[in-house]
Amino acid sequence: MSGCEARDAKKLVRSPSGLRMVPEHRSARSPFGLDEPPWVPDKECPRCMQCDTKFDFITRKHHCRRCGKCFCDKCCSKKVPLPRMCFVDPVRQCAECALISQKETEFYDKQLKVLMNGATFFVTLGTSEKSELMVCRLSNNQRYLVLDGDSHYEIEIIQISTVQILTEGFTPGGGNTRAIGMILQYKVPGSEELMQMKFTASEDFSCSKKLSASWLAAMHKATKLLYESRDQ
């Protein structure tokens, strides 16, 4: 097993919430991941935290695996996939959390694959006036943004500080906009200095423009998940 494979190795663990397939090393966890929340202690929740129903021998209490709060079966009956916490199977969640997790499923089922497949952009580094045509993709372990052209860059996702999606086609009265690029700011490990890259979609082929727009939309969603993980 290579050093990279060893870092990316996973193990099956059981928690009160269910079975999880997690990285053996915490440093190898996905930057989009969430930690399991602490459960509200049973003694601190005599009533459902949603509908205020009193718990008794018949009305049992259940904990939402995403927020850790305590609910009755009616308010916490849905079992929904929760890949951000690495659960193997769908887990019990309250209605509010289940809705959020269901929306995230699209990212894991579709947009993550778009990011890993990559798209082509003209990349401008810093204040340079020169740009380079590069294929940009998310690494399979989700931890790096990989750029390949005549040059090669690997940007660690957790070092990204801001992502600004550039669009065109906006009208004051509202209307369709199209993502045409992005400005990315990130820190170089071991330095507090912010580096900047500008990505501009290639105008060569209409199919390339469509792919680039889809990639940028997926990157926008990934950025939101990244910010949520940091704010946890």
From TrEMBL:
Every copy of the FYVE-type domain together lies at: 42-97
Top-level taxon: Eukaryota
Q: Which UniProt keywords apply?
A: Metal-binding, Zinc, Zinc-finger
Q: Name one GO molecular function term.
A: zinc ion binding
Q: What is this protein called?
A: ZFY21 protein
What's the source species' lineage?
Eukaryota, Metazoa, Chordata, Craniata, Vertebrata
Q: Which gene encodes it?
A: Zfyve21
